[in-house]
Design a protein that fits this description.
This protein is mainly β. It is 0% helix and 54% strand. The chain has strands spanning 3-7, 10-12, 18-25, 33-39, 45-51, 58-60, 68-73, 78-83, 92-100, 103-106, 110-114. Strands 2, 4, 5, 6, 9, 10 and 11 form a 7-stranded mixed sheet that branches. A 4-stranded antiparallel sheet has the order 1-3-8-7, with no helix packed on it. The protein is globular, with a radius of gyration of 13 Å. The termini are far apart.
């Protein structure tokens, strides 16, 4: 059974940090690129970042201005999204998505709220 489980979301003050995790099982994790996608309240899906299967290549949405970084541990089938200097506009449900040759799997999402 394929599973992607995000965790690490929560409430944080502006300027704070959170680290999200995406734990995978049921497929060959190390051969899939992983994207992070978010959905703010009342808005559509917004692409955040992508990390290659090996972890050597990452791409980021320009609006992040370098505040987020990601990494992966293929030995533990987990990808991490480190979010720093969070802003109220970062409030969203964050999803991880595994992608390979047109096949994709989604997690259930984790809520991030940035508020004072």
């Amino acid at each position: 059974q394929v599973q992607l489980v995000e965790s690490g979301g929560g409430l944080v003050q502006p300027g704070g940090s959170l680290r999200l995790s995406c734990a995978a099982s049921g497929f060959t994790f190390s051969s899939y690129a992983i994207s992070w996608v978010r959905q703010a309240p009342g808005k559509g899906l917004e692409w955040v970042s992508c990390i290659s299967a090996s972890g050597r290549i990452t791409n980021w949405a320009a609006y992040l201005e370098g505040r987020f970084t990601n990494s992966r541990d293929n030995s533990n089938n987990t990808v991490y999204l480190q979010m720093n200097n969070l802003r109220p506009e970062d409030k969203a449900v964050y999803y991880c998505k595994a992608i390979k040759l047109g096949r994709s799997y989604w997690g259930q999402g984790t809520q991030v709220t940035v508020s004072s």
